[in-house]
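Internal tracking record. Fields below are filled automatically when a chain is submitted to the structure queue. Please do not edit lines marked as system-generated. If the sequence contains nonstandard residues, flag them in the REMARKS field before resubmitting.
Queue: standard
Priority: normal
Entity type: single polypeptide chain
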Amino acid sequence: MSTRRSPPALTTLYLLAAISPLTLNMIVPSLANIAQDLRADYALISLAFGGYLAVTALVELAVGPLSDRIGRRPVLLVAIAVFTAASIGCASAQSAEAFLAFRMLQAGAISGYVLSFAIVRDTRDGPDVVALLGRIGMAMALAPMLGPTIGSLFDTLFGWRTVFLLYTCLGLGLVCVLWFDLGETAPERSSTDDGAERSVCALLRAPLFWCYALCTATSVSVFYIFLAGAPLIASAVFGITTATLGLFIGSITVGFFVGSFLASHLAARYPGTTVMLLGRGVACAGLLIGCAIVALGAATPLLYFGATVFAGLGNGLTLPGSNAGAMAIRPKLAGSAAGIMGAMTLAGGAALATLTGLAITRYTAPEVLLILMLSSAGAGLMFAALAAWLERHRTTSGTARS
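SYSTEM-GENERATED OUTPUT FOLLOWS
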C-alpha cells in the first residue's frame, strides 16, 4: 500500500513488548519505601501493583479496537507519551493519592504489548507470525527477571523516585524510536470491508477465536497460579530462604524463555496448532510428574520446582501459536483480538491467583499448588485440541468448496 511504511525493526517490537512487564514489576521492591516516604499504609500503596493490573485490563479492551479504527501508530504514540508524562508525575508526587493517580495513567504502557502482537500480524503471514511472536516472547521473559533487580538497585542507591525517572527515560526513548521507525501497519479501511469484516461482534461469534483466546488465558493462568502460591510453598514446606527464593520462583520464567525459543524454530516446520498441543502436553506431563513425586514422598526443592519448569516451557511453546491463531480469525481486527484476549487473560489470571492464595493459605500441602496449575494447564490442552479440530474442519471445508 502506498501509505504503509516498512515494518518496524525487531528491536522496536521487543521494546514495545517488554515495557509493560517492566512497568508492572520494576517498582515492586520499592513499595515499602514509597509507603514510608508518602506516609501511607502499605495496603494503599500496594494498589500501585494490584490496581494497576485492573486498569491495564480496561486499557487493553480500548486500545485494540481503537488501533483497528484509527491505526497502530497514533495510538502507540499517544499511549507511550501519556505513560512518560505519568512517570514524571509519579516521580514528583507528594501524596499517596497523587502517586496512585499517576500510576494508573502509566497503564498506557500495556498498549506496547497488545499492539506489538497486532503489528506482527499486520506485517507477517503464516508461520512467520508464530516464529516472530516466539522471539518476542523471549524478550518478554527477560523483562520480569531483570525488572525487580534493576528497580531494587536504583531504589537502594538513589531512592524510589529514580525508578520512575528511569521509566521517564524509557518512555521518551521509545516515543523517539516509534516516531522514526514505526509507520502505519494497520490495513487500510475501504468502502467494501467496513461491515462484517470490521465487526468485532463477528469476531466474538467465531468459536475458533474463543478456543485460541481461552487456550491463551488458561495457559497464562498457570503462571499466575504459580506466582500466587509458590512463595508460601517454598518457605513453609521446603524452608527456602528469602535469599534463594527468587531462583526457584524464576524457574518457570526460564522455562518460558526456552519454550519461546523452541516455538520460534518449530513454526516453520509444523502447524501452529501442533506446536500448541505439544506445549500443552509438555506442561501437563511435567506437572503430573511433579504430583507423582509428591505422592511418593520424594519431593525436594529441585525436583518440585524442576517439575514447574515444564509449565513455563509449555507456555512458551503454546502462546505464539494461540496468539497468532486468535489474530488470524479476522486479520483486519488483529488489534481487537489482541486486546480482548489480553484482557481475558489478565482477568482470568487475577481471579485464579486470588483463589490460589486462599487455597494455599488454608492447605499448605505442596500438591495443592500443582493440582491447581495442572487444572488450568489441562483446560488449555482441551482448548488447544478444540482449536486444532476446528482448524482442520475449516481447512477441509475450504478445500471441498474449492
